[in-house]
Amino acid sequence: MTLSIGLTALMLNAIAAPAPAAQGGGQTPEAVAAARDRALEQAASELAAGRRAEARALLAAAAERFTSVKALLQLARLQSGDGDAAGALATLNRARALAPNTEEVLSAIAQVALAARAPVQGILALEPLTRLAPNVAQHHYLFGVALMQAGDMPTAVEALQEADRLDPAHTLTSIALGIALNNRKMFGDAKPILLQVLEREPENVEALAALAEAEEGLGELDAADTHAAQALAAAPGHPTANLVVGMVLMKRDRYSDAREALERAAAADAESPKVYYQLSLAFARLGDDEGASRNRQLYQEKLRAMEARIIELRGAGLSSRAERRR
User: Fold this and answer.
1) What domains are defined for the chain?
2) Is 31 exposed, middle or buried (0-12, 13-18, 19+ CB in 10 A)?
3) What is the pLDDT of residues 33-68, one digit of tens each?
4) Quick one: three-class SS letters along the chain?
5) Which residue, among 106, 68, 112, 65, has the nearest Cα to 88 in the 3D structure?
6) Cβ–Cβ < 8 Å for 109, 92
7) pTM value surpassing 0.85
8) Nearest residue to 324 (alpha-carbon basis) of 134, 148, 147, 180
9) Is residue 228 within 8 Å of residue 209, measured between CB atoms?
C-alpha cells in the first residue's frame, strides 16, 4: 500500500466513523460543519495531486455522512470530467432531492444533461431554473438549446427570444435563435439575426452555416452555396453546411454530388431527421430504391424519437410560456 492510498484510507475511515460526542450531548452544528469542510479540503488536495479516484471516494463518503449538497456537486463534477455522465446525473439528482430549488444544483444538472445529449433531463431542470432566476439570460439560452435538442422548436424559439431580450449581444444566443427559426422554416426571420452576428464576427462558422440554410430556404441558392462553402473551408465536416450544399445540389439536379454532401452531413450529425429525408430523395433520383427506402426508414425513426421526447416532456408537466410568466 502506498503512502497516498494509506492516508486516503485513514481519512475515509475517519469520515465514516461516528463523530465524538460534544460536551452536553450530540455533536454541535459547528463541529459537523468543520468536519465536513476538512473532508472537502482533503478531497481537493487529492484532486490537486491528480488522485481522482481517491478524491471521488472522499467526496462520496462526505456526501453520505454529512448529507452534503456541496460534496455531491463536487463529486458530480469529477464524474462528468471522467466521462461518467450517467453517474454525474444520478449524483446531481441526489443533490436535487436535498435542495430542490437551488440554482447551483439545477444549473449543474442542466449542463451535464446537455453535454450528455440528455435534453429531457436538462429541460426538467432548466424550466424551474428560468422561473427561479427569470432575469438570467444564460438560463433561458440553455433552456432553448435543450428544447432544440429535444425537437420542441416552437418552445425553443420562445426561450431563445427571451434570452436575446435579456442579453442581445450574446452571439451564441443569436445563432441558436437563427437555427431554431430555420427549423421552423421561418427563414426570413432567421436571416437578419444571423447577418447581425456576421457583422460582428465575419468568420463565425456556425453563423455562416445557419445563414446558408436560411438562404437556401428562401431560394437564394448562390448566396447559400457561397456561405456554406465559407463554413466548410474552416470546418469541412460541418453538418449544416454539408446539408445546405447537398440541398443546393439537389435543386441543380446534381444528385450524385448531392448524395456525397448529404452523407457527410449524416456522418457528422446522425440524429438529424432532415438529413435522412434529403438522402432518401437523392437515392430515389439516382434510381437506388434500396438506399431511398433505408433512408426513409431512418428519417421516420428519428422523427419518432423526437416525438417520444416531446411526449415525455408533456407527461412530465413542462409548463407553458404563460404559466412560466406567472
Assistant:
1) 51-133 (1.25.40.10), 219-308 (1.25.40.10)
2) middle
3) 888 899 999 999 999 999 999 999 999 999 999 999
4) CCHHHHHHHHHHHHHHCCCCCECCECCCHHHHHHHHHHHHHHHHHHHHCCCHHHHHHHHHHHHHHHCCHHHHHHHHHHHHHCCCHHHHHHHHHHHHHHCCCCHHHHHHHHHHHHHCCCHHHHHHHHHHHHHHCCCCHHHHHHHHHHHHHHCCHHHHHHHHHHHHHHCCCCHHHHHHHHHHHHHCCCHHHHHHHHHHHHHHCCCCHHHHHHHHHHHHHCCCHHHHHHHHHHHHHHCCCCHHHHHHHHHHHHHCCCHHHHHHHHHHHHHHCCCCHHHHHHHHHHHHHCCCHHHHHHHHHHHHHHHHHHHHHHHHHHHCCCCCHHHHHC
5) 112
6) yes
7) no
8) 134
9) yes
Residue 286 has pLDDT above 50, yes or no: yes
As a whole number of angstroms, the distance between CA 120 and CA 309 comes to 7
Higher-confidence position of 30 and 136: 136
Query: Grid coordinates representing 28?
Result: 454541535
Predicted confidence at residue 190, as pLDDT, reads 98
d(CA 257, CA 77): 45
C-alpha cell at 63: 456526501
